[in-house]
Amino acid sequence: MFGPAQQVCERGNWNPVASPACVQLACPPLRPVTDGGFAPIDFQYSTGEVVNYFCDGGFSLFGSSTSINCIDTGPPSVMGVWDPPEPAGCTLISPTNTACLSFPCLNGGTCLHKPAPPFFECVCTSAATGPTCSIPP
């Protein structure tokens, strides 16, 4: 919402004169993903929209999550933000980063390749916690 959250009628006139207006905020443009991509592809993304990332065959997503949400952080922000931030990109699956191929993340967790041991990180759903999403809430 832009403008005042409330107006008061004083002596037959609204104060402040400007009326509030509801607007949908847009998130910053997304960077291209080498050896992968994202969907849906759009010119502009508004708050509430979700973007899903993917990698080409032989590559694995390297970063915070496979999907991001355009959210409104509230005043004074005039733009939406991506939550979590955009993934770093796709990395070539090699002997040192095949950890996710064994599906180490349990209970619906998402496996992300990392460049250092143990070469993976699990992003858990609300159904579990722990390094491999094996601990119930």
Automatic annotation (TrEMBL):
InterPro entries: EGF, Sushi/SCR/CCP_sf, Sushi_SCR_CCP_dom. Residues 25-92 form the Sushi domain. Residues 96-134 form the EGF-like domain. Disulfide bonds join C27-C70, C105-C122, C124-C133. PROSITE patterns: EGF_1, EGF_3, SUSHI. It holds the Pfam family Sushi. Keywords: Disulfide bond, EGF-like domain, Sushi. The keyword Transferase does not apply. SUPFAM superfamilies: Complement control module/SCR domain (SSF57535), EGF/Laminin (SSF57196). This is Sushi, von Willebrand factor type A, EGF and pentraxin domain-containing protein 1-like. The lineage of its organism: Eukaryota, Metazoa, Chordata, Tunicata, Ascidiacea.
